[in-house]
Amino acid sequence: MYFYLPKSLHYCLPKSLHFILPFTPIRFQRIGNDDSFKTPTNFMPIELNTSCGVNTNESAVKELEELQLSSNFDYPKPTTLISALVSMVCKLDTNALVLDFFSGSATTAHAVMQLNAEDDGNRKFMMVQLPEETEESSEAFKAGYPNICEIGKERIRRAGKKIKQEIETANAQLKIGEEPKQVPDIGFKVFRTADTNIKWNLYDALGQLDTSAMTHTPDLADFTMGFNDIDVVYEVMLRQKDVPLSSTLETLTDIGSRTYLYGSAYLVCLETEITEELIDKLAALDPLPIKFVFRDSAFKDDINLKDETFRRLKNLIERNSGLEKKSYTVEFI
């Protein structure tokens, strides 16, 4: 996945995280415990060029050209360099999560996918980049990339497609007895920072009652203008603990057109009206979600139905959680 870091992301970052830092020049190096400094010789052993096949900045430009992407970067890094660093940092951890806070053209994402293709690893990447605008006179802008993030996203798409094609071509030429290689996961999700989609109360920033939210549709009463259900679901998930953004999201069409199951464990119901029939369907789900999230307004003025829904689903969750599973309950937004 590739995304602009959400403000609440620190709630869901895993404990085991590998960082690939930006390559800014190292100016000085402390000698021993005194106050003397000197210019360092090499940050990385020069042997890497031969032992790991690390290429140059020129080859990085060529990589972008091979993907038919115009370079908008003065010093792009070759994927071989990032691959070598990932291998050094992660060692034998082929399930590592690699985070790049200044992802630029997404070289790190490209390198991680390439490494997975080479050793059948299952590494994941997390790219963070401010949407720095490209100059109007640049080739990138003329090609339809208004900011660096768009270049990075397109590179991940094209690099993934290229890796997939190369593996499929190689598999088609296998000799008898040779095992075909698996195509690594080349999918990703994109997130950006934004204001909330949910109207948590009916008062604006000045403490004044927002009467427009009370006189329009239920959606305008609960959510901000221009919202969509998927954004709301992800915002709700960001407010949970230890929920990865890479999980699957599906619509439970047998229950309703706006009822979603996230990560096979969290159910977010955005239907505008909750009925006993709908609750019966939710209670019959197998396996049962560990948490249910409803719109408070969907219960209308039926306090008894809301209370019964909470008690019924809460008891079901606790009964199914056992002693070892996580036990959550029911929330309302």
TrEMBL record:
UniProtKB keywords: Methyltransferase, Restriction system, Transferase
SUPFAM superfamilies in the cross-refs: S-adenosyl-L-methionine-dependent methyltransferases
A Pfam short name: N6_N4_Mtase
Top-level taxon: Bacteria
Limits of the DNA methylase N-4/N-6 domain: 66-118
Keyword Aminoacyl-tRNA synthetase: no
InterPro entries hit by this protein: DNA_methylase_N4/N6, SAM-dependent_MTases_sf
Protein name (Swiss-Prot/TrEMBL): Site-specific DNA-methyltransferase
Taxonomic source organism: Dehalobacterium formicoaceticum
